[in-house]
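#struct-help
A.M.: can someone run this one for me? Single chain, 176 residues.
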Amino acid sequence: MSSDQTDKTQTETAAQEFPDAANHKRLKLEDCLSVFIMGVLALITFANVLVRYFSNQSFAWTEEISIFFLIILTMVGSSSAFVRYQHIRIEYFADHGSAAKKWWFSIASNASVLLFFVLFTVLSLKMALDDYTYGDTSPAIGVPNWWYSMWMPLLSLLITWRLAGIMQDLIKVRPT
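D.P.: on it. C-alpha cells below:
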C-alpha cells in the first residue's frame, strides 16, 4: 500500500470514528497560508539562485527570511495535521482496541498536546516580549527580532485553538 493510500485510509478511519474529522472547511486558512508561503519561498530561493549565478553574490536576507517562512510553514502545517488526524502518533495504540479505548487514547494524546501548546504559547509570548524589550536585532538584515518572534505565540495560539476544537469534537462523540 502506498503512503498516499495509507494517509487516505487513516483520514477515512478517523472520519468514521470521529465524524467532525472529515470537516476540512475549517482548514482554508491553513491551506491558503501554506500555498502562499511555499510560493514566496520558491520565489525567494529562485531569485537568490539567479543573482548568485549571474553575479557570484547572494542576497544576504534570503536565508533569514527563508528560515522565518519555514518556521511559519511548520506551525501552519502542524495545525493542519492535527485537524486532519495526520499528526504523529503511536499507531499500535491509536488504531487497535475497542472504540472506547481508541477514544480514550485520542483524548489523552490531544490533551497532552493541547497542554504543550498552551505552555508553548505562553513561553513564546514571553520570548517575543523579551525581544521587544531588549531590542535584539537580526544578524543579516538588522531588523528587530520581535518581527520574527511575534508570530510564534500567534501561531501557537492558532494550534491551541484548533486542538481545543478537536477536543470539543472528541468529547461530543464519546463512544458508549
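A.M.: thanks! The CA atoms of residues 10 and 91 lie 10 Å apart.
D.P.: also worth noting: Helices lie at 3-17, 28-55, 61-83, 91-95, 99-134, 146-149, 151-172.
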